[in-house]
Write a structure and sequence with these properties.
By secondary structure, the chain is mostly helical. It has one domain. Helices cover 95% and strands 0% of the residues. The protein is built from two helices and no strands. The chain has helices at residues 3-92, 95-105. The protein is rod-shaped, with a radius of gyration of 43 Å.
């Protein structure tokens, strides 16, 4: 084998070594990326579960507030229809109001 062929063989061998080294580096990065993807999938799952729990909590709160809204609407309706009538009747039955009015009329 000539010196030129030996140099060419050495160059090819060096390139193959570099490629193998680069391949090993890339494969290590692929493995690292796979692990990171798995970790992110776990985190995503946890966030999704937290989000679903928050949504359920908010739905319960909305239902509770709807019930309170209904109760407040009923209380308001009673106050307008019955409450003022009750207050006026109490005032008309009150001596504190009737005596000064009676004194003005006499």
């Amino acid at each position: 084998m000539s010196a030129r062929e030996e140099a060419k063989d050495e160059e090819i061998y060096a390139k193959e070594e570099a490629r193998a080294s680069h391949k090993d580096y890339l494969m290590a990065n692929v493995d690292t990326m796979k692990k990171q993807i798995q970790q992110l999938e776990c985190e995503k799952s946890g966030v999704a579960n937290d989000l679903m729990a928050t949504v359920e909590s908010m739905k319960k709160k909305i239902q509770q507030l709807e019930g309170e809204k209904f109760s407040v609407a009923n209380d308001r309706r009673w106050l307008i229809t019955e409450g003022f009538k009750h207050v006026v009747n109490k005032l008309w039955a009150s001596d504190e109001l009737l005596k000064p009015i009676e004194e003005v009329n006499t």
